[in-house]
Amino acid sequence: AYMLENGDSGPHANSPVRNLTRVMDTWTTQVNYPLVTVRIRGNKLHFRQERFLLVPNATSIWKSNQTSRFGFRWIVPIRYVTDQISEPRWVWMDLEEEKTIELDHQPKFVKINFNQTGLYRCSYEQSNWRELIRLSTEGYFDSTDVAGLLNDAFTLAYINRLNISVPIELFETLQDDHLSSATPWSIAMHKISEIGPMIAGDQQAMTDLSKFIVKILNRPLRNILSKKEAELTHMERIKRQTLNQIAVMVDEPLVTNKLFKMYQQWRANTSFPLPPDEIELIYEIGVYKGNTSDWQFFKNRLNEIESYSEAKHVCSALAMSSDVDTNYRLIQSLLNLNSQEAFSIAAKLCRRSGLRELVWSYFERNWDIMMERYDMAFTLTEVTKFPAEFHTEYDYQR
After folding, report:
1. Quick one: which of 258, 196, 195 has its CA closest to 221?
2. Which fold has domain 1-124?
């Protein structure tokens, strides 16, 4: 996307992209990436770049052992639109901390990283965020840009650079169901799931959060479920699967009751056909809404099946019991499973409030045994699935 167009007359004719090595060196020889903030002043746009850190108070630690010949500045290609610029334009920040450009109009809003073509975070003034929220409500932006706005807004709120009301209001725009893609939903729920462990001890807050998500989910979910199977496009099938997953996560009755009924039919006769894209959800609901006999059914099934995909679905179901003793026994039995099964179940358990500490403690106590037993299968990629769900200073110290 950043290459020259139309020779010397293209949108990048005066850009540093003519020396591609110089541009790429700023991205390949420096850790992290930039946060670009844009402000509107009359008919001018003011851009500022800074090094983005997800843990801002770690800056002193990073600075003490990392240097950069570019001073942690990047050559950033910024693609933007305004209320009067519908065809995206480009501006380049060439290792500049700040840059100002002049327009032929006074914009009501500006949206940078249009169509998510750049690797950088975006920040705006409060008034600009409000306008972007209003436009999202009207369906002005496509799925790609709404997903980008949600990602940036939640991330900035997470590090206290933006009031949490902004990403929440952006999330609310999804209830209008303007978008065909599931991506904005996936991004929003991934970010919202980071909030869950932080409020796990506050049952009322957890309940309120679930009710809020159910409210936003209501119209899009009913719209997609009202369509006949043969009418669904590929994108709509993915969206249905995503919305169903969210519905299960927040115990939305329309979906959970439907899936549990399908589970009961399948449990009575395992030749009963299940939708391929909903098998794992149906298994999970079966264990979550069922009893210990349903959990034991899947525990026995894990020892009988040979299919990797089926084993993956079963492992996911085993981690969904609502019984405390059952979960504790499952954690204690992880060493009796093969590495793929153990890691799959442990990662799933870590996403559930109150269980990740038990899983991590088990891994700490049995670290040497696991290294010896699983050898090269016990990879860093697998291990990082568990601390990825940790969020507090206490978790970090562990």
Report:
1. 258
2. Immunoglobulin-like (2.60.40)
> What are the E-state strand segments in 28-74?
34-41, 44-51
pTM above 0.70? yes
pLDDT tens sequence across 10-44: 555 556 667 889 999 999 999 899 999 999 999 99
Start-to-end CA distance of the chain, whole Å, equals 43
What are the Cα distances from residue 255, in Å, to 170, 237, 241, 298?
Answer: 24, 15, 11, 22
For the chain, give every residue range classified as CATH 2.60.40.1910.
1-124
> For 127-151, what is each residue's pLDDT tens digit?
999 999 999 999 999 999 999 999 9
Q: Which residues of 189-202 are buried (b: 16+ CB within 10 A; e: fewer)?
A: bebbeebbbeebee
Q: Bridge-partner residues for 48, per DSSP? A: 37, 98
Residues 6+ away with beta carbon under 8 Å from 216: 171, 172, 174, 175
